[in-house]
Amino acid sequence: MEDLVIDEEDIGDDPEPLFQKAAHEGAGAAMVAKEADKETAGETKSLEAPAAPGNAPEQASQVIDGKPAAKAVLVGDSGVGKTSLLLRFSRAEFVTSKATIGVDLQAQTLSLPDGKSIKLQVWDTAGAEQFQSLTSSYFRRAHAVVLVYDVNNRNSFSSLGRWMMEVDRLAPAEVVKMVVGAKDDSHGGETAVSSEEAAAFASKHGALCERCSAQDGTNVQDMFKRCAVKIVRNGFDPDGKPPKAAVSLATSTTAPKRSKCC
């Protein structure tokens, strides 16, 4: 079991939303957030504390098994398949009917081309409108942001412009960006969004681009490895010393609550 540690600055100071649960299973963990009881709100740390533009704290605040972990955040509209991608990546399984409530977190170790390995925490954030302020607070510490759309849903692709604005506003300047077309289950068949259109959007914003299928696993591992390689090229040291100021996440064996399709 891998111990997950997060810097206190990653949690924030606003006492309203709280970590409700965290679950460990092998290399994975899951978290969800809910409103705090007002009587005890002053004793807790919050997920909701966006940094002022230009004042984003430094990266590398996460620790797994005593080593620094890079942080990747999945963003995109609700229903595009972010959770399915995460579970295919972390557990090699396909789940079709889960929607994230708050935040899911899974951790994996990836092998790099140079023979080294990197600990990667992937945060699956809820895409529903009411969770967008919660999602935004996580950009600040991210080493990579994966913007996910459904290749069969043009509206989800159109929304990427809004998500990209949030990334550019709140994420570190050196963050790795990747545009991912999920649910590419036909592998070359006609889709609502063409590969060329997605590639043009990604190029415009200096992002990597990929299409994948959580259903059969096509390109899922590869997309995260591409992100990891770029993260290291940007200066992240997977063998570096962990940060001194950090707090351990509370853990539970209770799985996060979910609802309908992801």
TrEMBL record:
Record CDD domains: Rab (cd00154)
GO MF annotations, alphabetized: GTP binding; GTPase activity
InterPro entries: P-loop_NTPase (IPR027417), Rab (IPR050227), Small_GTP-bd (IPR005225), Small_GTPase (IPR001806)
Record's keyword annotation contains GTP-binding: yes
Alphabetical UniProt keywords: GTP-binding, Nucleotide-binding
Annotated region described as Disordered, given as residue ranges: 24-57, 242-262
Transmembrane segments: none
The organism's place on the tree of life at top rank: Eukaryota
SUPFAM superfamilies according to UniProt: P-loop containing nucleoside triphosphate hydrolases (SSF52540)
Pfam families, sorted: Ras
Extent of Basic and acidic residues compositional bias: 34-46
Alphabetical list of NCBIfam families matching this protein: small_GTP
Identification of the protein by name: Ras-related protein Rab-18
UniProt organism field: Haptolina ericina
